[in-house]
Write a structure and sequence with these properties.
The chain has about 200 residues and is an alpha+beta fold. It has one domain: Roll (Bacterial Protein-export protein SecB). A 5-stranded antiparallel β-sheet has the order 1-4-3-2-5. Helix 1 packs across helix 2. The longest helix has 30 residues. It starts with a helix and ends with a strand. The relative contact order is 0.24.
Length: about 200
């Protein structure tokens, strides 16, 4: 997601963001599956598609559901991720997390009417602040599940706001630097790739 889109979303949800706290987090789905054979001599590559949506306001509470679909593949020798060097998918991970958020109408100095909260505001909150709030839970679950599948630890990056053109994706990270940061666009359908050893 580019900074302009994120800025637009944050402007739309600013009224509720200033009054909202996370109350609970639960996993709705955690699924990992080996679908191919691992060549332990080659690094891993992955594509990830995170998305978020809102579940509607019920009194002072609303839900945000974040879903992460991760496709793990073998990279070519030396981390080469060109299409001809990346093999078939060897594992798939899907994580769906539900966060319960509460809007405090008494917070702030101005009067606040819960009945005036729009679904557009809630959706903007889900796709911006809500996804940022739930992302650490997804990172931990994906890392844990990758090792339970017998794969090397898959450490996905923190969410960051892109500042450049999206034409440079997927971005390759050196297989020697497992913890190198990359920018992570977080709108549905954007392809994110990374190499991990």
């Amino acid at each position: 997601m580019d900074p302009n889109e994120l800025g637009d979303l944050r402007r739309v949800c600013a009224r509720i963001s200033a009054r909202t706290e996370i109350r609970d987090v639960r996993f709705e789905a955690i699924h990992g599956e080996l679908v191919g054979e691992l060549d332990s001599g080659r690094p891993l590559a992955f594509d990830m598609k995170p998305s978020a949506s809102q579940g509607g306001l019920d009194g002072e509470h609303f839900g945000v559901v974040a879903e992460y679909v991760v496709s793990i593949k073998q990279a070519g020798e030396d981390g080469d991720q060109s299409e001809e060097q990346v093999t078939e998918e060897i594992a798939a991970i899907t994580i769906r997390i539900a966060g319960l958020f509460r809007i405090d109408p008494g917070a702030g100095s101005e009067p606040f009417d819960l009945d005036a909260v729009s679904s557009e505001e809630l959706e903007a909150y889900a796709r911006s602040t809500g996804l940022f709030a739930l992302h650490p839970y997804a990172r931990q679950a994906i890392s844990s599940l990758s090792t339970q599948l017998g794969l090397p630890v898959l450490q996905i990056p923190v969410l960051k706001i892109t500042t450049g053109e999206m034409g440079d994706w997927p971005q390759t990270v050196s297989s020697n630097d497992r913890h190198a940061a990359i920018f992570l666009p977080f709108c549905a359908g954007v392809r994110v790739s990374r190499v991990s050893r």
